[in-house]
Design a protein that fits this description.
The protein has a two-stranded antiparallel sheet with strand order 1-2. The N and C termini lie far apart (93 Å). The chain has eight helices and two strands; from the N terminus they run H-H-E-E-H-H-H-H-H-H. The chain is 66% helix and 4% strand. Strand 1 and strand 2 form a beta hairpin. Among the domains are: 53 residues, no CATH class; 58 residues, no CATH class; 38 residues, no CATH class.
Amino acid sequence: MDMDPNQMPEETRVPSSVPLLSAPKRHLARWAVMLVVIIVIAALLYVFRGIFVAALIDGTPISRLAVIRELEHQSGAEVLDGLVNQALVEKKAEEKGIMVSDEKIEQALIDISANLSSQNMTLEDALKAENVTLDQVRKTIRFQKLVELLLEDRLAVSEEEIKTYMEQNKDFLPPNDSIDEQKKMAQDMLRQQKLSSAFSEWLIAAKAEANISYWKKY
């Protein structure tokens, strides 16, 4: 005679759902997962320790945050001003559709290398001496080229200006260079002087026009 399962004694019934793990096993599994997570986090902290710690002195860490705070204290205003200037130049250049091609940047690097070579120095040596990377130099060249293109109409140098400069600075011109080479050098120097002056004026006007909010005072 078959017995209704519902009428079977409670201790003989088969549970409708049996847990995959008993309570102790589930507890151990949780701890195992936590242990793996802790190990992974510790490994990541070790691999990327340079992100958080700049140096260790007898086991005592100097954090990168401490270095950053000191750098901000020493030159924060100068660095921030440079970043603001860069942002203004980038914005105006984009508005005017001005771009600097990779070819122009590489040509500028070639010119720099040639100039250094004439001084018995390689570009690699100069980078090490200045503690900068080639990528940083490329960014600097690109920024300078953008500024020159933005202010091109203010940088023209006349023959009369070149003649006057050469007369006033004849003792500083390379005596072994040809007249054309001396004129080219004078033109470049005058152009740089005009660029510096024009850029200062341009920045004053650009900052007055832009809506700049400084949240950090140095």
